[in-house]
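User:
Note these tokens:
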Amino acid sequence: MPVTGRLVDALADYRAAPLALHRLPPVPGVRVRQELVPGPSGAPDVLVRVYRPDDTTAALPAVLWIHGGGFVLGGIDSVHLSAAQAAAAASAVVVAVRYRLAPEARFPAPLDDCYAALTWLAGNTAEVGADPARLAVAGGSSGGALAAGLTLLARDRGGPRLTFQHLSTPVLDDRLTSGSMTAFTDTPIWNRRLAEESWQLYLGDLVGDAPVYAAPARAADLSGLPPAYISTAQFDPLRDEGIAYALRLADAGVPVELHNFPAEYHAFGQGGDPRDQRRIGAEHLQALRRGLHP
């Protein structure tokens, strides 16, 4: 969803209600259902879609699948195909979550919705055919920020025990001081200008003093977090914060796999070589499968 102007001017183009299930393109070999699960206290219920391979009745690992969009765009429909493909390729239950978006719902509302979906998943593993000992989170871009924030929140609250985190070109640091963030001011798909606006819309009055659950790179202690796969792109302003976070996880004793893809832009889009796109997509799915089936 490339944005050429301001994020706030693009909201109307990306705020459609979710499609009915029968209008979603089917993915052979994968069943999908959706339901409303209890939301945070005093907040609306949260819509989730549950994807499961139909070739097995065994308890499978499960992953909460969080869409990106700069905290303000995107939706559960935007990850329908990727969630279904992940369920098939990784032999897993994939639960995509529709969380509230900024600026109408600023931090912590989106994270609270995702945490509500995660706790529902952890409490209903038998219902969805999941293995309670193998729960994971996955997200790209701002979905990566929410996924990483969930690992910190679950650790600190004594919440669901997570065994893996999969972060693709993640948003992690609101301070915007890295070399790549300083250098890439006009790159396609994502750049410093859009990053500044995104954090402002998400944090509001908290800009400049983000809690660690909003900007996980601010966390002083990364110990006790689940093993991670992190991917970054050479021409992405988010590149250096992703690399730095991976190195800090490793320093904290967390097993981490990091891959910086050369000659790629944020989210691996904007006219890249189709062969490279297929290779990157295949690696992401393989990394997910390895993380869920250690």
Observations:
- The radius of gyration is 18 Å.
